[in-house]
Specification:
The protein has four helices and nine strands. With about 160 residues, the protein is α+β, with helices and mostly antiparallel strands. The model has no long low-confidence stretch (mean pLDDT about 95).
Length: about 160
Amino acid sequence: MNIVSLSELPKEQIDDFFHVHWGSREMVISSGIYDCAALDGFAVLTEDNVIIGLITYVVKGEECEIISLDSLEERQGIGTALMKKVEQVAAGNRCKRITLITTNDNLQALKFYQKRGFMISHIHRFAVEKARQIKPEIPLIGNDGIPIRDEIELEKGVSE
């Protein structure tokens, strides 16, 4: 699996990825507003240098927060490999925990993260409605017809 730092990729390729998969480079969540294309992260590339997986994160003191994670080919180990890269970064920065936020409709993500040791730590009720005031392109209805309303925060301790 070809995993590279986002700093090694052309900015336009990262911009295009976020516009196609997130509607814009901007991620609006309860922990802040982020320009995903400007964040640290990693990507999984095909032999033709097409991005098939991408993760972004920020390190804030003793916490590493995953801001985005995309795997375009599920059940191939892409998401897991990207998570492991961020876990290495967190350990290298002496972080005590890794956190992330997903939405209430993203049941697949909740399963994925919990299988990898993350535990639900907070529910931010109506957080997505507040985020829509800043980023109106966030859809009202998500996976399986579930209204997107709340954010679910998960965390995991960092092992050295």
